[in-house]
Specification:
alpha/beta, Protein-Tyrosine Phosphatase, Chain A, five-stranded mixed beta sheet, 27 strands, globular
C-alpha cells in the first residue's frame, strides 16, 4: 500500500499514521529522517508504538525522531523544539501524526515564527529572540542570581508526573475545567510500576507498563519538562534546573522517592548480570524472569531495606513468585532461599504476618529479620549483610549466591529533604488527614514523598487524590477543607502464580477490605484483579480522573 505524502517543500513532507512496514517505502522515496508527532496509545492498542516504528526506521537506514504532542499542548517553546529538531536532522524529512494535520501545523508555525529557513530548513537561532507562551511568560532574573530565566505562573503547580501528579491533575480538571494546572516532570515516560512484579515472573509484558508522558498528561494540563532544584514557599516560588522560575497559587508536591542504587557498594556495576537483578526497575524486571527460569539449583537471596519504601510487600512478592515457579518445575528441593529484611517484622500489619509466615515455610524460605544488605560483588557471587548479634553488636555476614534480587534503599529527593517544606526526617510535612502543609497553607503533599504514616502504594495514592482535589478546591473557595484521608492502602501480595493476598488497611493497621473476603488469606480472584483489572483501572480510570471506589469519608 502506497502512503499519501503531502510535500510542503522539497525537503519536508507530512503524512498520516505510519507503520513499521512503511519505513522501507519512505526510505525508497528519498527521505532521510522520520519524525513522529503522535503520542503512543493515543488511538488504542492497535496503534503501533514509537519504539516499534523507530526500530523499523533504523533497519531501513532512516534517522528517527520522537517528538509527540497533543494538539492542545502546542506552545511556542514546543514549536522552537520542533524547529531545532528539523534544523539538525538529515533531510529530506517526513513527519507524521494521526492524520498529518498537527505535523503540518507545527511545521507551518515554525516557518511563520521565523524559526526555520524555508529554503534549506536550517534552524534560525537568534539570541535576541524571546519565545513566550500564551501563559503570560516573561524573562525575569532567578531569585538570588543575575542570569535571565523564564517566569511562569499557574493556579495549581504539581511537582511530579507519576501516578499521583497525573491523577490529581485529571481529577482537578474534571471538577474545574478552566483551572490553570501545570505539571513539572523531567521524564519522557510514565510507568505502571505495580506490574513489574508480574514482569519478573513472566506474567506481564514490560512494554505494556510504559507510555510516553505526553500520552498520559491530561489535555488541558500544561507540561513543564524540567527538574526542580529549589522550593521557596515564602514567595510561592519553585526554581527549576532549566533556570525557569515558577510561581503558583497552590502547590502540590508529589515527586515520589529517590531509589539509592549507588548506596550499596558494588551493586550498580553488577545489576542486570551475574544473577543480580531487581523488579524495582523496568529494564531489570525481565532479567529477574530470565534468572528464575535459568536457575536449576543453588542459593537465591531476596532483600528488603528499611521502610518506608515503595510497596513494602514487593520484595516478598519476588520471592514467592520465583519459588512458586521452581516448585512447579520440581526444582524447589534443589534451592536454598533466604529473605533478608532489614526491618524487625515480615510485614507492617500484624494480621497478615501468620499467613505470610506460612507462605515462607511452604517454600522452605529462611527469613532473616534485621539483616541489611551492605555490599555486593557480582563477579564473585558474594553479598554482605549487617545485623545485630545476641550481644547487640553489629556483625558483618558474607553470603554466596546464584541469584540475588535487590530492593534499594529509598529516601526523599534532596530537593525535598533540603527544603523549607520538609520535616525533620526529610518528608514533605502534611496533616495526616487533610494532606495540607501545617506551615504553608497553600501547599499540599501527595504520594510517596509526604510524611503521612501510610503504606506507600498506588492504591493509597488513588484515595489521596480525591481528598486532595476536594480540599484544594475548597481552599481556593475559602471553604473549610471537607475531606479526610484515613490512611487507606492496598498491597496485593502475590504469594504464588494464581494466588494473592489483597492486603487492605489504613492508619494503625486497621483492616479495610473492599470486597468482603478475608483480606489476610490468599484468593485466586485477587490474582486476576492484579493481572487484568488493576492495570485497566490505572490507565483508563485513575489517570483519567474517574474515582470509582476511591472516595474516603468527609470531615464536614
Amino acid at each position: 500500500m502506497t502512503i499519501a505524502i503531502t510535500a510542503h517543500t522539497p525537503l519536508f513532507g507530512t503524512t498520516a499514521q505510519t507503520c513499521p512496514e512503511d519505513m522501507l517505502q519512505i526510505a525508497q522515496a528519498g527521505y532521510k529522517t522520520v519524525i513522529n508527532n503522535r503520542p503512543d496509545f493515543e488511538g488504542g492498542a492497535d496503534q503501533p508504538t514509537s519504539e516499534d516504528i523507530a526500530q523499523a526506521a533504523t533497519a531501513a537506514g532512516l534517522n528517527f525522531i520522537a517528538l509527540p504532542f497533543s494538539p492542545s499542548q502546542v506552545t511556542p517553546s514546543l514549536v522552537e523544539e520542533f524547529a531545532k529538531a528539523v534544523g539538525d536532522a538529515p533531510k529530506p524529512i517526513l513527519a507524521f501524526c494521526r492524520t498529518g494535520t498537527r505535523s503540518t501545523n507545527i511545521f507551518q508555525a515554525a516557518v511563520a515564527m521565523g524559526l526555520l529557513n524555508p529554503n534549506d530548513l536550517s534552524f534560525v537561532s537568534d539570541s535576541n529572540h524571546s519565545v513566550t507562551d500564551d501563559t503570560a511568560e516573561k524573562k525575569t532574573p532567578e531569585l538570588g542570581q543575575g542570569k535571565q530565566n523564564l517566569h511562569r505562573h499557574h493556579d495549581v503547580l504539581i511537582i511530579g508526573g507519576g501516578s499521583g501528579g497525573i491523577a490529581l491533575a485529571a481529577s482537578l480538571l474534571k471538577r474545574q475545567p478552566d483551572l490553570d494546572v501545570a505539571i513539572v516532570e523531567p521524564a519522557e515516560h510514565h510507568f505502571y510500576q505495580p506490574a513489574w512484579t508480574l514482569v519478573g515472573a513472566g506474567e506481564y509484558d514490560v512494554k505494556k507498563t510504559k507510555r510516553q508522558m505526553h500520552a498520559v498528561i491530561p489535555a488541558k494540563a500544561k507540561w513543564i519538562k524540567a527538574a526542580v532544584t529549589r522550593f521557596q514557599p515564602e514567595q510561592n516560588t519553585v526554581i527549576c534546573a532549566t533556570g525557569e522560575v515558577l510561581t503558583y497559587q497552590q502547590l502540590v508536591v508529589a515527586p515520589g522517592l529517590a531509589l539509592l542504587w549507588d548506596s550499596i557498594p558494588g551493586l550498580v556495576e553488577t545489576l542486570g548480570k551475574n544473577g543480580v537483578t531487581s523488579n524495582y526497575r523496568a529494564d531489570l524486571a525481565p532479567y529477574t524472569w530470565e534468572c528464575v527460569q535459568n536457575l536449576q539449583s543453588g542459593v537465591a537471596l531476596f532483600t528488603q531495606p528499611m521502610v518506608p519504601i515503595k510497596c513494602a510487600g514487593a520484595p516478598q512478592k519476588a520471592l514467592y513468585l520465583s519459588a512458586d515457579h521452581w516448585q512447579k518445575n520440581n526444582r524447589l528441593n534443589r534451592m536454598h532461599i533466604e529473605f533478608h529484611n532489614a526491618g524487625g517484622a515480615l510485614f507492617s500489619v500484624a494480621d497478615f504476618i501468620p499467613n505470610l509466615t506460612k507462605q515462607m515455610q511452604a517454600y522452605n524460605a529462611q527469613v532473616n529479620l534485621g539483616s541489611n544488605l551492605v555490599a555486593v560483588d557480582g563477579a564473585a557471587k558474594k553479598a554482605w549483610f549487617e545485623r545485630k548479634n545476641a550481644d547487640g553488636q553489629i556483625e558483618r555476614i558474607e553470603k554466596s549466591f546464584d541469584m540475588l534480587h535487590v530492593v534499594p534503599p529509598q529516601k526523599p529527593h534532596a530537593f525535598v529533604k533540603d527544603s523549607p517544606l520538609s520535616n525533620a526526617d526529610g518528608w514533605v510535612e502534611v496533616d495526616n488527614a487533610t494532606l495540607q502543609h501545617p506551615r504553608f497553607s497553600n501547599v499540599f503533599g501527595l504520594g510517596d514523598a509526604m510524611s503521612a504514616p501510610n503504606s506507600k502504594t498506588t492504591a493509597a495514592i488513588r484515595k489521596q487524590v480525591v481528598v486532595l482535589a476536594e480540599n484544594l478546591l475548597a481552599l481556593r473557595d475559602n471553604r473549610p477543607l471537607p475531606m479526610a484521608y484515613d490512611g487507606y492502602s492496598a498491597c496485593p501480595i502475590t504469594v504464588g502464580n494464581g494466588k494473592l493476598i489483597l492486603a487492605e488497611f489504613g492508619y494503625n493497621g486497621v483492616l479495610m477490605p473492599t470486597f468482603g473476603n478475608d483480606p489476610t488469606t490468599p484468593h485466586a480472584s485477587g490474582w486476576y484483579m492484579k493481572k487484568y483489572l488493576f492495570p485497566r483501572v490505572y490507565w483508563h480510570l485513575m489517570l483519567k480522573g474517574h474515582e470509582i471506589l476511591a472516595r474516603p469519608k468527609r470531615t464536614k
